[in-house]
Amino acid sequence: MALASVWGLMGAMAFPKPCLAKRACVALCLTGLMLGIICLVSHPLGLLADELAWNNGQGHRSAPLGVSGTRDAGFESLPPALTGLSFTNRLFGEMFLTNAVAHNGAGVAASDVDGDGLCDLYFANLQGANRLYRNLGGWKFADITGPAGVGCAGQLSTGAAFADVNGDGHTDLLVNGITAGTRLFVNDGRGRFAEPVDSGLARENTAMSLALGDVDGDGDLDLYVANYIDVMH
Fold first, then answer.
1. What is the extent of the structural domain holding 172?
2. Of the candidates 138, 102, 113, which has an alpha carbon nearest to the alpha carbon of residue 188?
3. What is the domain count for the chain?
4. Domain holding 205: CATH number?
5. What is the pTM of this model?
6. What's the whole-number mean pLDDT along residues 186-212?
7. N or C, which end of the chain has less CB nearby within 10 Å?
8. Is there a domain that residue 51 lies in?
């Protein structure tokens, strides 16, 4: 599953292993209520990812990184004019004033949806359409929400995750929403998604966070959904 997220006031996403940039640097995107995307990029270390001394662990790998002597360590904020990431998570009118639950942040998910080797970004919106941005390389992105068919207009989205649900090698998308339950969008491998009517997922609950894993060892991903007030599934 290509997702790392934090639920609560802020949603946070770090690019997972399959989406490593060509240079050994780290990207972090933050979204919060009434905030746009804050895209932070660490200063490059001057090393290619395959030049690092990787230590293989169980289901992951890690490598020690030295701090460059020529630049300061830390992150640099990239403006929307450079990245093309113009998403803002907002609430308007009475909903902003009266709905404390909706003040929570929404989800962020990352995966290579079109098989070009670059991490694409999906942002869940509390009021308004969600957004899918295709990674063009060089920290530039293009909004492909319309052609991809994953806007989820008309619902208050609270979370999202990419995972290869049907085992065809393409990352599919799951989206949670208030009174919308959990929705599944199946990827055709080119970044175009279709929503099956027979997924078996509950659509009437107030779904918040979600997690996937093979809990019974049968080779298929199982799904756990945390609902607000409603029974967990």
1. 10-45+77-227
2. 113
3. 1
4. 2.130.10.130
5. 0.71
6. 88
7. C
8. no
Residue owning tokens 């290509």: 2
What is the spatial distance between Cα 94 and Cα 164, in angstroms, rounded to a whole number? Answer: 38
Report how far residue 161's alpha carbon sits from residue 171's, in angstroms, rounded to the nearest whole number: 9
Listed in sequence order, the residues at least 6 apart from 43 whose beta carbon sits closer than 8 Å to its beta carbon are 25, 68, 71, 72, 73, 74, 76
Give the strand pairing for 10-14 and 35-36. unpaired
Nearest to 178 by CA among 86, 75, 91: 91
For 150-194, the pLDDT digits (tens) are 999 888 888 899 999 999 999 999 999 888 889 999 999 999 999
Tokens linked to 7 = 């639920």
Helix, strand, coil % in the chain, rounded to nearest 5: 10, 35, 55
The tokens for 51 are 């030049």
Rounded CA separation 89/126 (Å): 6
